[in-house]
Amino acid sequence: MPNITKTLGQHMLVDARVLGKIIDAARISKNETVLEAGTGRGILTAELCKVARHVVSYEVDRKLYQQAQERLQFQNLELANADLFKTTGLRFDVFVSNLPYSRSRDAFEWLAVQKFNRAIVMVQEEFADKLAARPGSKNYRAISALAAHCFAIERLFSVGRQSFQPQPKVESVVIRIVPTNTVTKETIKNLNLLFSKRNKKASTVAAKARVKVDFGSKRVDQLAPGDLIRVAESISNVCSI
């Protein structure tokens, strides 16, 4: 059995009950293509292959990829040894993943520029709280605003530490994502830049970027997701911020 790359924050799901709940939640039909991030030991991949027309699974770890090639013998499976979140031009209906904790933000930023039908993902509970954070709260981040603008997110169920190997130090949660808007990579870059000034007066930060708006005395981290995205989309000179 391959070693787990701890630097990637990998914790393999080993609980068959949770696995079944994820498959049920995904509601995959025989006409759909599923994209999976993180093949791992392939237990989720195998179940996806049983219900989908086609499964494309990405694994960045070379050893895990090679093990999956030997173990997973499905005619509707395509394995890739590459970083999915640096890949473009993919077509898929459903995204499913037990996301490595270290890649959760990358995954959501990548999904925000994709066209797909729905996603079922497992994330760290703390990250799920950030996704749901409201303007002005301490957990409100650029990823909160991006998620609120681009997705309708529903918490489905919690997953305990004992369901993984090795056991993580934190709790996890499975969420359903339905896309509502897409943005460009440039908008995401600008949004993150705006949040680097989160405690500054929003109108002043926008003015430095040559965007004329009046948010009164509100700070950047008090703006609604839609306002932040509009400013991020209007910025033409990031060096001025």
UniProtKB/TrEMBL annotation:
<comment type="similarity">
    <text>Belongs to the class I-like SAM-binding methyltransferase superfamily. rRNA adenine N(6)-methyltransferase family.</text>
</comment>
<feature type="binding site">
    <location>
        <position position="11"/>
    </location>
    <ligand>
        <name>S-adenosyl-L-methionine</name>
    </ligand>
</feature>
<keyword id="KW-0808">Transferase</keyword>
<feature type="binding site">
    <location>
        <position position="13"/>
    </location>
    <ligand>
        <name>S-adenosyl-L-methionine</name>
    </ligand>
</feature>
<feature type="binding site">
    <location>
        <position position="83"/>
    </location>
    <ligand>
        <name>S-adenosyl-L-methionine</name>
    </ligand>
</feature>
<dbReference type="GO" id="GO:0000179">
    <property type="term" value="F:rRNA (adenine-N6,N6-)-dimethyltransferase activity"/>
</dbReference>
<dbReference type="InterPro" id="IPR020598">
    <property type="entry name" value="rRNA_Ade_methylase_Trfase_N"/>
</dbReference>
<feature type="domain" description="Ribosomal RNA adenine methylase transferase N-terminal">
    <location>
        <begin position="18"/>
        <end position="181"/>
    </location>
</feature>
<protein>
    <submittedName>
        <fullName>Putative ribosomal RNA small subunit methyltransferase A</fullName>
        <ecNumber>2.1.1.-</ecNumber>
    </submittedName>
</protein>
<dbReference type="InterPro" id="IPR011530">
    <property type="entry name" value="rRNA_adenine_dimethylase"/>
</dbReference>
<feature type="binding site">
    <location>
        <position position="59"/>
    </location>
    <ligand>
        <name>S-adenosyl-L-methionine</name>
    </ligand>
</feature>
<keyword id="KW-0694">RNA-binding</keyword>
<dbReference type="GO" id="GO:0003723">
    <property type="term" value="F:RNA binding"/>
</dbReference>
<keyword id="KW-0949">S-adenosyl-L-methionine</keyword>
<keyword id="KW-0489">Methyltransferase</keyword>
<feature type="binding site">
    <location>
        <position position="98"/>
    </location>
    <ligand>
        <name>S-adenosyl-L-methionine</name>
    </ligand>
</feature>
<dbReference type="InterPro" id="IPR001737">
    <property type="entry name" value="KsgA/Erm"/>
</dbReference>
<dbReference type="Pfam" id="PF00398">
    <property type="entry name" value="RrnaAD"/>
</dbReference>
<dbReference type="InterPro" id="IPR029063">
    <property type="entry name" value="SAM-dependent_MTases_sf"/>
</dbReference>
<keyword id="KW-0698">rRNA processing</keyword>
<feature type="binding site">
    <location>
        <position position="38"/>
    </location>
    <ligand>
        <name>S-adenosyl-L-methionine</name>
    </ligand>
</feature>
<dbReference type="InterPro" id="IPR020596">
    <property type="entry name" value="rRNA_Ade_Mease_Trfase_CS"/>
</dbReference>
